Amino acid sequence: MGEKTTDDRPGLLLTGATGFLGGELLARLLERGERPIYALVRAADDDEARRRLDRVVESLLGPGERRSNRVIAIAADVASPGLGLDLSGREWLAERIDRVIHCAASVSFTLGLEESRAINVEGTRHMLELAELSASRGDFGCFTHVSTAYVAGDHGGEFAEDELEVGQQFRNAYERSKFEAERVVRGRGASLPVQVLRPSIVVGDSRTGWTPAFNVLYTPLRAFSRGSYPALPARRKSPVDVVPVDYVADAVLGLAGQPGTTYHLTAGERASSVGELIDMASAYLERRPPPVMPPAFYRRAIHPLLVRRGGPKRQRALRRSEAFFPYFSMRVRYDDTLARSALRKQRIEMPPLASYFDRLMDFALTADWGRSPLPRHEVVPVRRLRPRTQRRRGASREHSRPALHSLARGG
């Protein structure tokens, strides 16, 4: 079961290490600490899990990175009863950990409810069962569950960090299943030390723009960059709560291990608005902002017409965007007072979207929205963006890609 290790110190169990946020957490754990890290990896066996994890660590930190020896890869499936491990395997693992950071989840807005529940709800339940097994064998510090601010669903107004059930409805199976998972976690709070962390929309690194995951906010941005939105169903004043992955990863590690707490890892009072996002994207792409229409009218009269009369590319873009349109007219704000206060003591601060939006777009174009991925370790921080006024007027973004590509690789 797992890999042999001579380190007798209790370790930290991380799920989702091969994903976006989980990978950022793994990189920081390797860079900052010395304790063993146990990573659950979906694979046929431990050898395959080790190979998968080695590739992730190499992409994150560079080839020949020996710190990966501190990570013990374990082939498992959070959606399977017992994590797909036999009893001896679960006991072996339970005896070696004293903390869990549970990041593994489906973040798809289009997956069906049962499929979402299998990963997000039952997967969380299976992880809690392992944590309880570990706690029964000795000191257990904390089960940190990475949830989402979108458990607030369609709630209007302020949503506080200590709130969960406020009579909200949900836009999709992702929101509902994460809400149900958090309810399961809270239900174990009397017998197990648990905490909940709720990020909002997680985008690329604020210093480099790097991301391997071009979903959620990137889907409508990509469609807009290609001229697929003659109009948008939105409210310009609706908040858009976006947080960069470097802030979220730093915040998770800064706050993890505090049983009984719930923190919003959100933009909070620094959140942008739909109007600001449209204006930033329009300025970056040097085009006019599309008109904004009342969502109900757009869905009833405009969207069907655009889909029907658009070419194949526009039709595909509009259909892919349908799952995200409800987020253009939200009325909820995520209060992050407790998180902001706790993180201020550690000098961890959430940067406003306007301060790094161009980096996100630069990287998205460099990576061709994920078609030409770049390893994280090759992307260098950009301290100062070139002012738009210095760009050659009318220059195509396509033409600027080679220079951006060279910059991203440190050339």
Helices, by number, come to 13
Strand order, biggest sheet? 3-2-1-4-5-7-12
Proportion of residues in helical segments: 25-40%
Biggest sheet layout: 7 strands, parallel
Give the CATH superfamily of the largest domain.
Answer: NAD(P)-binding Rossmann-like Domain
At the first level of CATH, the class of the largest domain is Alpha Beta
Shape estimate: globular
The beta-strand count equals: 15
Element pattern in H and E: EHEHEHEHEEHEEHEEEHEEHEHHEHHH
CATH architecture of the largest domain: 3-Layer(aba) Sandwich
User: What structural class do you assign from the helix and strand content?
Assistant: alpha/beta
Radius of gyration, in Å, reads 22 Å
Report the average pLDDT across residues: 90
- Percent of sequence in beta strands: 5-15%
Count up the domains.
2
Q: What brief labels describe this structure?
A:
13 helices, 39% helix, 2 domains, alpha/beta, seven-stranded parallel beta sheet, 14% strand, disordered C terminus, globular, Rossmann fold, 411 residues, two-stranded parallel ribbon
Topology record:
Elements (H helix, E strand, L loop, with lengths): L10 E5 L4 H13 L4 E5 L4 H16 L9 E5 L11 H8 L2 E6 L10 H23 L6 E5 L10 E3 L13 H15 L6 E6 L1 E3 L14 H8 L6 E2 L5 E2 L1 E3 H11 L6 E4 L6 E2 H12 L6 E2 L1 H15 L2 H10 L10 E3 L2 H8 L12 H10 L30 H12 L3
Parallel strand pairs: 1-2, 1-4, 2-3, 4-5, 5-7, 6-15, 7-12, 8-11, 9-14
Antiparallel strand pairs: 10-13
Helix pairs in contact: 1-2, 1-7, 3-4, 4-5, 9-10, 12-13
